[in-house]
Each structure stands twice: as C-alpha cells, then as structure tokens.
Amino acid sequence: MATFVDRVVLHLSAGDGGNGCVSVRREKFKPLAGPDGGNGGHGGDIVLVSDPQVTTLLSYHRYPHQTSDSGTFGMGDNRHGSNGEPLELRVPIGTVVTDDEGNELIDFSEPHLRYVVAKGGLGGLGNASLATQKRKAPGFALLGTPGEKLDIHLELKTMADIALVGFPSAGKSSLIAAISAARPKIADYPFTTLQPNLGVVQAGNTRFTVADVPGLIEGASEGKGLGLDFLRHVERCSALLHVLDCATLEPGRDPLSDLDIILAELEAYPVAEGEIPLSKRPQLIALNKADVPEARELAEFVRPELEARGYKVFTISAVAHDGLKALTYALAEVVEQHRAAELAAPVAPRIIIRPTAVDKLPFTVRVEGGTYGNIYRVLGQKPERWVAQTDFANDEAVGYLADRLNKLGVEDGLFKAGAVAGSTVVIGEGDGVIFDWEPTLTSTAELITAPRGADLRLDENQRPTHKTRREIYLDRMDAKAEARAELEREREAGLWKDEDTESSN
Questions:
Q1: Is residue 193 part of an annotated ligand binding site?
Q2: Residue 501, annotated ligand binder?
Q3: Residues contacting 444, CB < 8 A, separation 6+
Q4: To 10 degrees, what angle do helices 255-268 and 293-308 make?
Q5: Cys bridge to 121: 17, 44, 204, 326, which one at CB 3.0-4.6 A?
Q6: Does 464 count as an annotated binding residue?
Q7: Known binder of ligand: residue 100?
Q8: Beta bridge partners of residue 322, listed in sequence order
C-alpha cells in the first residue's frame, strides 16, 4: 500500500449559491404590505493552505473528489440564507498547483499560504432586494449560480536543505539513516528507494534537513529510470551531496565516470526561470563504502583529482559511521551560508494582482455557422451569470433579463454581428441557453434596406423650422383672404345672393 504520494489530480466542486425567495409581507389590515423575500446564501469556496505538518498528498490520492457546502435558499420575512462553509485543503510545503493545460496557479513555497482555487456560487437576490421605485413589488427572484467545477494537478517538490544524489545502491539510504533518525528501506538491490525520505540532522547549533531521493541513472533528465520523479525533488534544495560508490562491481563504472554522468543529467534538467541550475549549486562529494579495503584504496586514488576540480571531498562509511561527523559539519556550514544569503537578500512582499484589461469588453458575439443558418453566441461573465440566475418559467424574470442584456448593449452587438429578428442566439459556451431572438425595436432603422453608403432616411422631409412653419401659416392665411375676396366680388356681380337677403325681399 502506498504511503507517500507526490502527484495527484483533484476534482473540485465548489458549493452552489442558494436561490432568492419571492414573498409578500402580510399584516393585519395590510394584505399586501410589500415584498420581503430574502437573499440566498453564497456557496462555500475551496481553499488550498500550505501546512508544515502535512508531508504527503496521500489523503487526496484516496479521496480525489472534494466538494464544499452550498448556500441555503432565502425565506420570507427578509430572512437570508446561510453561506456554505468553505473547504480548506491542506497541502505540504513545496506543492505546485497547475490546471489541466499545465499553467501554474500557485507555488506553495512558504508555510500558511492560502489560495482560493474554486469560488463558490453567488446567492440569488430575493424580491425585496430587487424592488425599485418603478418595480415596487417584483414577482420574481434570482436563482443562485453554480460553484466552480474544475480539475487541478498537485505536484509535491521536496523542500530540503541538502539532496543526496547518486547511482542506485550508492548508499544514500544508509547514509541518511546514519546521520539522522530517518529509517528508510535499505536492501542490496538497485532502486530500493522509490520515494523521497527526509531526515533531520543536527550538527553543532545548526539543524537542517537532508533528502534521500530515488537513484539517478544516465538519461534521467529524459525520463529514464525514475527520471523526473527524482530530479523534481532536487529543485528546492540549496546544496547537493554526491554519494559515489567506491565498491561497485559493475564493469565500466568508477567514481569519476559516475560523477560525470550525474553532472550531465543535472545540467540537462531544466529549472524554472530565476532559479539556479542544478549543476551550479554548491556541491560536495562523499566517497562511500570506505569500510571495504579496495574501496578505500580507490577513494584515496580519485580524491586528488576530485579536489583539483574544486570539490570538497569526504571519505566515509555509512555502515561503520566513519567520517560522518566531518561531513555533517561541512554540510551545516554550506546550509548556514545559504540561509545568511537569503536573509541578506531583500524580500518583496507577495502581492498578486489580476487587474481587468482596460479595453476588455463586457461580452463578445461570435458568429458560428449552422445547418439552418448562422448561430450568434454571446460570451461574457455578466451575460452568462445573468442567464444562470434567471427562472425562465417566470415571464417577469425573463423580461428583467431582457432589460439587463439590453442595457449592457447585447442587442446592439447582435445587430452589428448581422443578426436579424428570428436568428438563433446562444448565451454561454456549449449548449448554453438557446432562443430565437426578437429584438426590442426603438426605431425603424434596423428594417431599412438601402445600397451601401446610402440611407433612405436622408431623403425624407426633415422636421420644419419655426421660420418654415410661419411662412406656411402666412401663405394659408393669404389664401383664405383671397378666397373671401373672390366670393365678395361674385356676390356684388349678382352671381349669387345671401339667403337672408332673399328671405327679406
């Protein structure tokens, strides 16, 4: 059964928001005293926390599906729903979190860091919160939005001061067992160590950690053997200790060739930008298995050449505990120098800023070809959230959604994209919410068809000015006066007589 896990995929589901409530307050002698529906509670977030007491991802390997609590629905009498409890997932220091596409979300290089990896859904507003001067008694409420659902990858990179590197069966597990209280598995066959082992070493007043990681072979940087499973645990170490086997019986192997192969693999392994390459970090050499006479002779033979390369060399025997004290004090000195350099270096506060782009539009309209014509897909955080909050069984709620989309400029965006009445519009990715678009016409401009660069409205009579209306009025009055004068002349000529005059005669 596995006891150490350094890679795991988590399937996260943040809590959903609770629905808002539709309610009308009823009092004695006041049957309809106004809306009093409460808001729904927010869903709980899922938070990752780096904890020094956690050393493995084993618990998440067994339970990869994690879900936080959902918010409760609102109730009448302005009673709001309760928020869902956030779910805290504690991970070891040194855990790197990435998404499905390999993008790094956060690196837990320090203790007690917190990162909200999945946000809970928003609670829906009750009809009391939706009341306005124009809409005094809403007959609808908003639904709660679903929480985020995503998969993340956790990768543990061991946090230790010293990393023991070397070929399989070089004696790394025996060495860490001799200088610390760690009890790794020790056997006389290669690749005994299949998982990193940490040990705490006390040398004088200095305490530091040593990592015994799986053995390294040629081609490890390309994935051979345990390959990357080994090398990624070396990334966080401040110094390396090469454990060279001086008693190997394999043909073609000796401490110098082993060291050259290991250095080549360290040189080929890529590290993150801003980090020191593995081959450039402080390195010491331990010529192990000196309790064997032939091994001690070989160690004394290669020691001058290794020292000529600039390495500090120690002849040790992990089994006989020979030379370990000098080695641990030398390691402690390297660790103290590294810690002093870190303290002297200015540390900027960790500030994560994710500003919204100035030119970012609240939504976009994407035209997609379909079997029965173009499909106009509206994408944007606000439109998609508003659709999720809408109860489509309530006509008033649908009208409220239409007003919100119109104020955001969705109708204008659809017109510019070429949509006409009856076009298929989808809001959101995938299936989304599909409907036949019926635009709200504020003029007949959308229905006018004319050649490109022409506008038929320009040919219509414009609204008359005050001077024009005055001229028209005066012309009309002059025409009436001329008509009366013409009638008078005809009467005087005897062409017709007044009825009153005839009756008197």
A1: yes
A2: no
A3: none
A4: 50
A5: 17
A6: no
A7: no
A8: 317
238 annotated to bind ligand? no
pTM of the full predicted structure? Answer: 0.67
Decide if 75 contacts 81 (C-beta within 8 A).
Answer: yes
CA distances, 495 to each of 487, 489, 491, 498 (Å)? 10, 9, 6, 11
Cβ pair 295, 247 in contact under 8 A: yes
pLDDT at position 331: 92
Residue 318 marked in a binding site: yes
Q: What is the pLDDT of residue 226?
A: 46
pLDDT in tens, 451-498: 555 545 455 556 678 888 889 889 989 999 998 888 888 888 887 766
Task: Answer whether 113's CB lies under 8 Å from 105's CB.
Answer: no
Residues in the chain, overall count: 505
What CA dihedral angle connects 101, 102, 107 and 112, to 10 degrees? 40
pLDDT of amino acid 219: 52
Measured CA to CA, the distance from residue 122 to residue 46 in angstroms comes to 14
Q: Is 86 annotated as a binding residue?
A: no
Reference 408, options 383, 436, 378; nearest CA is 383
Contact 6, 56 (CB under 8 A): yes
The list of the chain residues with pLDDT below 70 reads 1-4, 30-31, 158-159, 182-196, 213-233, 272, 274, 345-360, 441-463, 497-505
C-beta separation of 231 from 221 below 8 A: yes
Residue 147 CB partners (closer than 8 Å, separation 6+): 13, 14, 15, 16, 17, 43, 44, 68, 70, 118, 119, 120, 121
CB 123 within 8 A of CB 74: yes
Distance, CA of 38 to CA of 104 (rounded, Å): 40
Q: Is 38 annotated as a binding residue?
A: no
Give 399-441 as a DSSP string: HHHHHHHHHHTHHHHHHHHT--TT-EEEESSTT-EEEE-----
Please tell me whether 214 is known to bind a ligand.
Answer: yes
Distance CA 127, CA 140 (A): 6
Task: Specify whether the CB–CB gap between 213 and 234 falls below 8 A.
Answer: yes
According to the annotation, is 374 in a ligand binding site?
no
How far apart are the C-alpha atoms of 66 and 89, rounded to whole Å?
A: 9
Q: Cα–Cα distance between 403 and 392 in angstroms, integer?
A: 14
- The rounded distance, in Å, linking the Cα atoms of 375 and 383 is 17
Number of H helices, E strands in the chain: 12, 18
